[in-house]
Structures are given as C-alpha cells and as structure tokens.
Amino acid sequence: MVIALGGNALLKRGEPLDPALQLRNVHRAARALAPAARQHQVVVTHGNGPQVGYLALQSEAYAATRPYPLDVLGAQTQGMIGYMIEDELRDELGGSREVATLLTQVVVDERDPAFVTPSKPVGPVYEEGEARALARARSWTVGPDGRHWRRLVPSPEPRRIVEINAIRLLVEAGVIVICAGGGGVPVVMDASGQLHGAEAVIDKDLCAALLASQLQASALLMLTDTDAVYDGWGGPDAKPIRRATPSMLRRMTFPPGSMAPKVEAACRFVEAGGSARFAAIGALEDVEAILRGEKGTTVEAS
Questions:
Q1: Active-site residue, 295 included
Q2: Comparing C-alpha atoms, which of 268, 222, 219 is closest to residue 246?
C-alpha cells in the first residue's frame, strides 16, 4: 500500500515551523504507521507545502545570490522530511525492517496550463493584507487558503515517476520506501530526452495516486488532520462520507483548498485498477480503523 502523509498531518495549520515541533509530529506519524508497516509492504510519501515555502523565504533572505528554484527546494524537503520519517519509523519498528528514503523526480509537461495559473499553496499562512503586501514586494501570486492567505505556485499534473524501477526493486526486497515527497521534484524533458528542473510544486496526492498505480498497489491511504471527506463541509448539515464509488464522488463538489485533490487522487487510483484496489482518506491517528473500514472515507469501484 502507498500511504500519503498530508502536510497537515506533519505540521498542523498555524503551527510554527519549529524543528523540535516537526520532529514530535513525525514521531506521532511513525507511531501511527508502524502497525501497518509490520503487516504490509508499505511505501510512504508526504507533503512539503509549509517546508518548501519556508525554505523559499530563507533563500530569498540571502541577497548576495539568486534564490534557489522550487525544484531544488523540493529536493531539499524530500531529504529533510524523509530523513526524519525514516529515523522515527525505523525506531518504532525496532530495527526489524529496512527503511530507505529515495530522492524522486517526477516528469511534468512544460506546456501544462498550471504554469500560467499558479494554484498550489506553499509556505506559512498570512492575513490578507500581509499576503497582498508580500505579493507586491516579491512578485508572488497569493490567494485564500481556508481562513488565511498563502503564496500560490504552479502545480502541473504528474506524468511519470523517473525512479519507479528503483522503487520497485526496493519494495521487492522488502524495504519500506519513503519517496516522491512533496509530489516529487518537478522536471521537464527536452527534445533530446534530457531532464531539467521546473519552477513548480506537484500536488502530493495526485503524485501518490500515480505512484500507487505504477506500483500496482492494492491500497492508497491519504492521511491528514480531518477524519473523513464530508458532504457539505463547513455547513450546518455536514456529514461524513464513509463509503463511496468514484462516480458518486465525481457528482459532488469540493471547493478548492478542501478535500478536492485527495478525492480526485482516490478516484483516479480506483478507476485505474477496478475492484482489486481501494483508496481511503482519513485522520493519521485512525490508520488501523481506516483499514478495517470503521473510520475515514473508503473509495471502491463498486
């Protein structure tokens, strides 16, 4: 199974990007994942929105050189977050399993319309006035993310995972693989077949769906800080959706900044594999109950 840890599962909304706090959250995540990792072949991916935005701010603060591009910052977050998950998960498993973090590149189309319409929130949250001032000062695109505002960057569709064969080899050898963090390092391919970094951040859930499909996984779990997908989220009559098919979910509307990317990823994964696979969306601490079908939202072909 592929387990995608949402950025909000590792760093809750509004929490400061403090290293000790992130390590505590990663420890909590590893403890929640350990039972599943003992029983299944597990591949872990993770979000990086807060961290990549923070590194971008650090990079811009050093005026003596040009800021690092988003692909390089994405690679940095893969190493940073992957290292913390790897250490904590290995400790939780008592050294009984090999755990490895693999730097992962993901090919996108340089003509993807996302490059002219930035939509992916990264970095810390701001009040609207502060966000608009930063946009003017730094030539950013900004927009609302829930009750707050954040920087928005291009988020093209993931097309191909460059290291997929290496990931397969590790999985077949019984290794728990941490890969495609933050949606992978975005790269484009030129006419000669050479890869070049792209100024973007790929949606982590869509990349997780592609990863799970290419690995022919049986399950895709997307874990966040919300216990399920809700019908009428935020309204007085909101209710959790416990079981659904892709066709049911595609008839519903999920606003941007909500569960929309996770729902789309779940639908794509199930539609690509039929009755042999399922996807689930829920809270990090409910992993075992989600696998039993008792909590979260389970998406199946029928």
A1: no
A2: 268
Which structural domain range is residue 209 located in?
2-109+157-299
Place of tokens 């070049």: 196
When divided into structural domains, the chain yields a total of: 2
Active site residue 239: no
Verify that 44 and 142 share a domain, yes or no: no
Q: Are residues 80 and 209 in the same domain?
A: yes
Identified catalytic residue from 53, 183, 184, 262: 262
Closest CA to 168 of 266, 274, 82, 43: 43
| Catalytic residue selected from 120, 123, 184, 296 | 120
User: Do 123 and 169 share a domain, yes or no?
Assistant: no
Residues 96, 126 within the same domain: no
**Final residue before a domain boundary, out of 130, 153, 176:** 153
> What are the pLDDT tens digits along the chain (302 aa)?
999 998 766 777 677 778 888 889 999 999 999 999 999 999 999 988 788 878 887 877 777 777 788 899 999 999 999 999 999 999 999 988 999 999 999 999 999 999 999 988 887 788 999 999 989 988 889 999 878 898 899 999 999 999 999 999 999 999 999 999 999 999 999 999 999 999 999 999 999 999 999 999 999 999 988 899 999 877 788 899 999 999 999 999 887 667 899 999 999 999 998 777 999 999 999 999 999 999 999 999 98
- Please indicate, yes or no, whether residues 289 and 146 belong to a single structural domain of this protein: no
- Looking at residue 226, the DSSP 8-state letter turns out to be S
Q: Catalytic one among 8, 49, 184, 273?
A: 8
Candidates 25, 183, 204, 282; catalytic one: 204
Residues with Cβ within 8 Å of residue 101, at least 6 apart in sequence: 78, 79, 82, 83, 85, 86, 177, 178, 179, 181
